[in-house]
Amino acid sequence: MGITIKSKSELAIMREAGKLTCGAIWYAGERLKPGMTTLEVDKLIGEFYQQHGCKSCFKGLYGFPANACISVNDEVIHGIPKASRRLKEGDIVSIDTGAAYMGFNGDSCWTFPVGKISDEARALLEVTEASLYEGIAKAEAGARIGDISHAVEEYCASRGYGIVRNYCGHGIGREVHESPEIPNWGNPGKGPRLVSGMTICIEPMINVRGDDVKTLKDGWTVVTKSGSLSAHFEHTIAITPDGPVILTRP
Ligand code: MG
Ligand code: MG
What we know:
Strand content: 25-35%
Distance between the termini: 28 Å
Order of helices and strands: HHEEEEEEEHHEEEEEEEEEE
Number of strands: 17
Bound molecules: magnesium ion
Radius of gyration: 17 Å
Number of helices: 4
Helix content: 25-40%
Low-confidence stretches: none
Strand order of the largest sheet: 10-9-11-16-17
């Protein structure tokens, strides 16, 4: 799917899809506690969508079996919720999901602490979240994708963190993944130009050490090669004449 420009009425639907996405993530995120399984977390996401008359756009996407990707500690993305995976105090948990609503999609991810976490984990969450907002600040009509990419890279690399390069942000709309790709590294002034009416997902995936990742035998779960912690923060945003608007915010 190429770059799509949304009309005002389409953007209004995207805003609803974004609210539902964010609502589901925080509904589950605020209920995390030691002893809970990642499958139980996924059930909370499904419960929220059901209560609000929508569905997960992740379920069935490329064959993914659950409502959300739930990735713990050294898992970067695409963690499959499991009854055998129990959360414990000190874990960090990325909840990545999207609502499908009236033909459009949301997509967002937030990494939550379980109870008290280490200083290393706390710093990783703060830097990754802040880098997302650095990228969003560059998402002005007329700017280029590389401006976003460079802002994210600069913020994280200058602090010594590893930027995952195998996966990118993306356009979003009627399809979860549309053009253009939005890498978390790159050069300012390069890449496609941002136009009002575009909706995109910016999603830094940041490791404490090293940028290398590998996929586990389940064919989905991506982990850091170094074994270090990884965090993932993502918003769906709209490019507007008044600047970037975050759609996945309550
Ligand atoms: Mg995404
Ligand atoms: Mg996502």
